[in-house]
Design goal:
Order of helices and strands: EHHEEHEE
Shape: globular
Strand content: 25-35%
Helix content: 25-40%
Number of helices: 3
Oligomer: single chain
Number of strands: 5
Structural class: alpha+beta
Strand order of the largest sheet: 1-2-3-5-4
Length: about 130
């Protein structure tokens, strides 16, 4: 194994679509990141946690129901995959500068990730993937 291969290659967590879900997803991401060897840089870890938070928050707010989070180490980054029950893809919105309705998350994910994809699932719903540099 090379020195950039993590000892924890993947982790999947299933969440109910509840208000506390993003906080639980952030914690799951931190546990995953803390288990990686070699350790990721603190800035990288915070970026991963931020993207996890945004993607899971979007799934809870806009898709409802159960969602899952999968974190996978790849040769050139960390893949975040969130599955939710809605077939409707995320969309860019005009950010609300007054702070009442958001609109910053999807744009931020697009900016921070090396690549982002949205794929429909055969049995309904979608998977949103973001690959972040490691």
């Amino acid at each position: 194994m090379s020195s950039t291969t993590a000892t924890v290659p993947a982790a999947t967590t299933l969440f109910q679509g509840r208000p506390a879900t993003p906080a639980r997803a952030r914690q799951a991401a931190r546990v995953f990141l803390d288990s990686m060897a070699p350790a990721v840089e603190p800035d990288t870890a915070e970026t991963v946690v931020l993207v996890v938070s945004e993607l899971v928050t979007n799934a809870v707010r806009h898709a409802g129901g159960v969602c899952s989070l999968r974190l996978v180490t790849r040769p050139h980054g960390i893949e975040i995959a969130v599955v939710d029950p809605s077939a409707r893809p995320p969309r860019m919105r005009q950010p609300d500068l007054a702070g009442e309705t958001g609109g910053f998350g999807w744009q931020m994910v697009q900016h921070l990730a090396r690549s982002v994809s949205v794929a429909p699932r055969r049995n309904g719903g979608k998977t949103v993937r973001a690959l972040l540099p490691q």
